[in-house]
Amino acid sequence: MNLTPDSKVLIQGITQPLAAYYAARMKAYGTNLVAGISVGNGRQELYGIPVFDLVEEAISECGFIDTTIIFVEPYSVLDAALEAIDAGISQIIVVTGDVPPLDMVNLLRIAKVTGTLIIGPSSSGIIVPGKILLGTQESEFYTPGVVGLISRTSFLTYEVALALNQAQIGQSIGINLGSDSIVGSSFRQWLDVLATDKTTKAIVLVDQTGGSNEEATAEYIAKTMNKPVVVYIAGYSTPEDKQLGDPSSIIAAQLSGPITIATTSHHKVEVYKEAKVPVAQRPSQIPKLVKKLLKKG
Of 260, 208, 250, whose CA–CA distance to 233 is shortest? Predict the structure, then answer.
């Protein structure tokens, strides 16, 4: 992913109240918002951003668009994303949460064939501090630097970024993968991206209970990564028979069967420790671990 202040960005569902609010924030941050989509509301402007009825119309008027950010209603996300893919947009951030699981399965199948990067659903997006803001990330928690943050949870990421800032450690990028039960991109995919990013010197993963990809992620870090990685798992103090996460993830986990050790933060922590990946017990420990690893490097 190549994100610069010149990257052309589209917002689908721009007249939604949440989208309109964050469109103004993104534009003020310097993001190159070239168009918005709102069916039935085309041929107008919002904060100086031209609004179209169709993505194809926006492409025709603005030329190639790098990224689209989707704010439409959950049951309209699949159609919006497919419209963007058909128009040749290769990076899609889905801010909307609670997208029907079958819709996500279909979208990810098509995205794999077309080579489209999907972030979300229920994602606060991406921020490259001081350069570009894509989504609902709260930019005041970030400062430019060398640590890449990859997270499944939005608000906890801000606490981690703030702790790094207080230790005078800035961030190269902040990525929120989304907290729905089925999401587009993974920790491993973004580790692969940041492994070759010249600005990023260290990486922090912020995970939560639920999911079952930590074994593959830990093995990938141990065997492949040439940059230091620190992991923080939210909910370590939670009893092992309790489930944390957003409501849809909890319900999905319970419907699939009883809570097992493999779905808890305790299990995730042990997996990373076995792979000799440093794990912070609380956000305030992260800056110390990062500084220690950067000195070693």
Answer: 208
pTM, entire model:
0.90
Can you read off the two tokens belonging to residue 37?
């989509």
The dotted CATH code for 138-296 is 3.40.50.261
**Comparing C-alpha atoms, which of 131, 167, 161 is closest to residue 9?**
131
* Beta-bridge mates of residue 49: 46
Contacts (Cβ under 8 Å, ≥6 apart) of 215? 271
pLDDT for 208 equals 76
Q: How far apart are CA 187 and CA 193, in angstroms?
A: 10
Below-70 pLDDT ranges, the chain: 1, 209-212, 235-265, 297
- What lies within 8 Å, CB to CB, of 33 at 6+ separation is 9, 10, 11, 23, 26, 27, 49
Query: Is 57 in contact with 85 (CB distance < 8 Å)?
Result: no
Answer yes or no: CATH 3.40.50.300 is held by domain 8-119: no
